[in-house]
Amino acid sequence: MEIMNNWNQFLTAQGARPAAIDGASDGTAPIAAAPIADFGQSLTVSQLQDGFVAAITDQGLIGLNGDEAASFLHGQLTNDVEHLNQEQVRLAGYCTPKGRMLASFLMWRNATTIYLQLPRAIQPAIQKRLQMFVLRAKAKLHDASFDAANQVVLGLGGTQAGAALSAWFPALPATPFSKVEHALGTLLRVADAFGSARYEWLTSAATARDVWPQLAEKLAKGGNDCWQLSEIHAGIPQITAATQEQFVPQMVNFELLGGVNFKKGCYPGQEIVARSQYLGKLKRRTTLVSIADASVVAGGELFAVSDPEQPCGMVVNAAPNGVGGIDALVEMKLGAIEEGSSAAGAVRYGSAQGAAVQFLPMPYVLDALDL
Question: What residues form DSSP beta bridges with 195?
Answer without folding.
Answer: none
